[in-house]
Design a protein that fits this description.
By secondary structure, the chain is mainly α. It contains 13 helices and no strands.
Length: about 300
């Protein structure tokens, strides 16, 4: 068996459980005594594919269609949608590799796409940063609104993403899983801080604590939903991966591993659905405003 999969330090690089026996076995055979979570993971990945691809393509179409009236964070939403479309293409290959194949060659392709998905919190962090500056530092936001720094930041994130995915694909860097752990912990902490601060500022912005402007109230609800999604999708790997040594080998590689990545990967569907629901809300508000104007 390829030494790449024998070294336990490559767990997060491969996304593939390690076989301690040295025999050629599929991932499903390695977890045949506890297959429930693996089946759930694969089912979730296919749901992600059938729901995530059309949802993200719709996001791409809407951001292109509304580019003349787009928000400042739409550039990051667009790049995140491209990233998620790429990732949502892999479930058929993933199913074949987990259930049927013992060869290591096709895992190079999967590891590259896993690396791309691992970096998605970087684009989410950019969105959170943009909203944080808009709400907490509106003067600075106004001064920077029409500059090209967002496009430059998006390109920088793609360079980091491709470099990370390539390194993960090669799979020869010792203790490379620590890069993912540090990245997810940092991004998660940053996103939670930004969103909690935004919620606090919006909550305190009314004439009294019990009053809030309707527009700010809608923003408050949207940010609250985003915060809940961030916690739901990204808290499991943040909470579980640093404690790998406290779980038995089989429990971690056949349960914890796929629970954490399954929930994190499902963000590829949840994020575009949230964006589309927000666009539907804005369209409804515009229609109501137009109707009121005509009635007057």
């Amino acid at each position: 068996m390829d030494v790449l999969y024998i070294n336990s330090s490559t767990l997060f690089i491969t996304h593939r459980p390690i076989n301690n026996t040295g025999a050629e076995m599929t991932v499903y055979e390695q977890c045949k005594k506890m297959p429930a979570v693996l089946i759930w993971y694969l089912s979730l990945q296919f749901i992600n594919m059938f729901m995530g691809i059309p949802a993200n393509l719709m996001v791409l179409w809407l951001t292109y269609k509304n580019r003349a009236d787009s928000s400042t964070s739409d550039i990051f939403i667009l790049h995140l949608a491209v990233l998620d479309v790429l990732f949502c293409l892999i479930p058929p290959l993933e199913l074949v590799n987990i259930v049927f194949l013992t060869t290591s060659s096709t895992w190079y392709v999967l590891r590259f796409f896993y690396g791309i998905k691992d970096s998605s919190p970087l684009f989410l962090s950019c969105i959170c940063l943009d909203r944080y500056v808009a709400v907490v530092h509106p003067i600075i936001f106004t001064e920077l609104k029409d500059r090209q720094h967002r496009a430059v930041l998006a390109m920088l994130v793609w360079l980091i993403t491709l470099a990370y995915a390539t390194a993960k694909c090669v799979g020869t860097i010792v203790n490379f899983e620590k890069v993912f752990t540090v990245m997810i912990l940092t991004a998660f902490t940053f996103m939670v801080y930004c969103n909690i601060t935004i919620l606090w500022v919006l909550r305190q912005s009314g004439p009294s604590r019990d009053e809030m402007h309707p527009v700010k109230k809608r923003a408050f609800k949207i940010v609250l939903i985003i915060l809940a999604i961030i916690v739901f999708n990204y808290f499991p790997p943040v909470a579980l991966f640093p404690f790998q040594d406290y779980f038995s080998h089989d429990v971690f590689h056949c349960y914890i591993h796929y629970i954490a990545f399954g929930l994190m990967d499902f963000s590829s569907s949840i994020q575009p659905m949230l964006y589309l629901s927000k666009e539907k809300l804005l369209l409804s508000l515009r229609c109501c405003k137009t109707s009121t104007t005509h009635n007057q």
